[in-house]
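Page 42, continued from yesterday. The earlier attempt failed because a stray header line got pasted into the input along with the sequence. Redoing it now with the clean sequence only.
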Amino acid sequence: MLVLVLGDLHIPHRSHSIPGKFKKLLVPGRIQHILCTGNLCTKESYDYLKTLASDVHVVRGDFDENANYPEQKVVTVGPFRIGLCHGHQIVPWGDPESLAMVQRQLDVDVLITGHTHQFEAFQQDGKFYVNPGSATGAYNPLKGSVTPSFVLMDIQSTTIVTYVYQLVNDDVKVERLEYKKN
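This time it went through. Structure tokens are written below.
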């Protein structure tokens, strides 16, 4: 089961679109679920995601126009409880201890957050944490250059095989990570 994880698009305010090389990889009908950390900013960005998969889950980022997106959400995919939160509410941003607190509050196996615009994935105390970065490479005021990135999670039984796609020097680089549920 393929799950697309992305966020921080900031279209049209900080970026005009998802890079063409990423769009070529995101083929409609192959992805079963989309988990978005927010900052889509417009309905058009949401509509684009709906062309890729019918099951789209979005949480509200600090720049989203749609106030109806929830602050946090828990989605069950296979045997995994996956928590979704934009990340601007977590202080300090991206801090492992603060992320662990949200993970415990949501009682999830996997916590997906964004806001920093920088890909990160790690395991801590048997749980998996993912920040897909910014799919468009939208600038972050605290960091000069941002590498565009998104994540595809292939859920196979009690294992998540995570593929990280990053656009580096106009080439798509892919890294593979694995998380097994205890």
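Notes: The longest helix spans residues 96-106.
Reminder to self: strip header lines before submitting.
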